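ARCHIVE CARD
Drawer: 12
Card no.: 0347
Subject: one protein chain, sequence and derived structure
Cross-reference: see card 0346
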Amino acid sequence: MRKVIALLAFGALVPAARAADLVERVVARVNDAIITQSQLDARVERVRKDPQAPTDLNRIRITVLEQMIRTKLVEAKAAHLDITATPEEIDEAMERVKTQYGLTSDQDFDRALASNGMDRDALRDQLRESLLTNKVLAREVPINLNDDALRTEYEKVKEQKYGVAEKAHVSEILVRFDSSDEAAKQAAKTKIDAARSQIAAGTPFADVARQITEGPARERGGDLGIVAHGDLTPALDEAIFGHADALAGPVELKDGWALLSITEREKAGFRPFDEVKEEIRKTMSEEIYDKKFADYLADLRKNAIVKILDKDLAAEDVESQKKGTPS
């Protein structure tokens, strides 16, 4: 009888143990939300497929976990602010991803996702998180840059970023020679000198070019178009921009003599403020956004209840927070 009771007791324990095994392990709690082991593992596995991902698995795990904690904090804030990402917005974001990577068919899209350890549901989740984050930050972390701030930045960086080289409209007559043949070189020089004399006497440069030039622009009367300082060889660059003459040369090249007509000179300067204003706004906004984003996330976490239940990850997180790494 005792054996029967013992067996019945053992039989009753087995289903209970199996049920406990089926309970998902919780890695972290963020206020009332949880992050499970399977959720973390799935994200980590996707990150590991990235060729640029760190090789240190522990580093990947804590980085991914902190990103997931950040998402939970933002989701809670979005719910408090009654902010949502609609299915239509997520659909539009999905289409933008397909367009960005030139994926024209659903099959190509699915293959590309699979190669990164993802499927459409996983991508939709990530896009929903991104949309929520952007909406929350747009409301909570506004960035207002007026024209005065943009112009101040323009004056600060224009030397490094917005310089425009001196330019000129250039036409060329080129007479080639064999560099190993001195007689051919002298004959070419005589021909280019005669061309210069014709032009000096009033014959249009383009007419002479169409007759004798051996350069690529013969049909265009030697017209090379607009040339910027530094575009051509040093010898040609010096002939064009080192002097104010409208007719320059002959210039000796390694296998030819060049005669140059220079018109429509434009002095070196800077791209105008109105042309680059939105570019400056974008750059400044991103820099300010990154700083404010980090501060905002730090405040969200400071005011939240975050408990990491994995001992090793908890220790890594403590070190990360000491270094000021935002979650």
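Annotation on reverse: The chain has two domains: 20-144+280-322, 164-270. Strands lie at 26-30, 33-36, 163-164, 167-176, 223-228, 247-252, 256-266, 269-270, 306-308.
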